[in-house]
Amino acid sequence: MFRTVPALILFAVASLVLAGCANGTNVGPTSPSSASFSGTVTTFVEVPVAMTNTAGTVGTWNWAGQSVTTPSGDSLGKIRFNWYTYKDAPTAFGRLYILKQEYLGTPNDVGPSMPGVVARSESIIDNQYVFAADVTLSANTKYWFYTDTQGSFVTSFDTDPYPGGEFYVSGYPTYPFHKAGASGRMVGPGVYVPPPAGVFVDANFTLQATTTQR
């Protein structure tokens, strides 16, 4: 499932959790909104690529999901979101859905009928998903972001750099999304270091927005 660009030889371990998917809130195509919010679009949550990781950068070609906890304060508008490539450049592919609950269904069922859908991205600009201006996220709230398209992006390897959320992944359209556990590694001929127990990795991503004060 995972591909790596190693400085050492890496061995990735992943598990699949079977789960179902039910129909829920129906969100149709969105159109640009005339709503405007004061302030400049800035970065509120970021998990950058760990370029100093001596184990190498972990790249993957999969469907991606990531839960994110918004900061305290005002609600957020003018939402932009991106993953990262192994070169630490922003990337986006397909459409991105924001949910107010965890989704453990399959990539085939990612769409407007998923339970808990808040919004769907309108476009990709400068390698970022862009949402309608009237889409807002509440402060200090956990949201889930899922792609409807397979793409190339990077993640942490055996650490949990972002305590506010978890990374979800699926490698096949009929395999359910599951939380991505930390990977073990080969550090020498016949020497395997198992993954740390109970550790889940995160995608490298950025959430940008502005406050909704008018």
Explain the overall architecture:
The chain is an all-beta fold. Helix content is 0%, strand content 38%. It contains no helices and 16 strands. The protein has strands spanning 2-6, 42-47, 56-69, 76-84, 90-91, 96-99, 117-120, 123-125, 128-130, 142-147, 151-155, 167-170, 178-179, 185-188, 191-193, 205-211. The strands form 3 sheets. Strands 1, 3, 6, 7, 10, 11, 12 and 13 form an 8-stranded antiparallel beta sheet that branches. The radius of gyration is 17 Å and the shape is globular. The N and C termini lie far apart (45 Å). Mean pLDDT is 82; it is low at 1-35 and 51-57.
Low-pLDDT ranges: 1-35, 51-57
Helix-strand category: mainly beta
Measured between the Cα atoms of the first and last residue, the distance is: 45 Å
Largest sheet: 8 strands, antiparallel
Global shape: globular
From N to C, what is the helix and strand string?
EEEEEEEEEEEEEEEE
Q: What average pLDDT do the residues reach? A: 82
Radius of gyration: 17 Å
SS strand fraction? 35-45%
Secondary structure tally, helices? 0
Number of strands: 16
Q: Helix fraction? A: under 10%
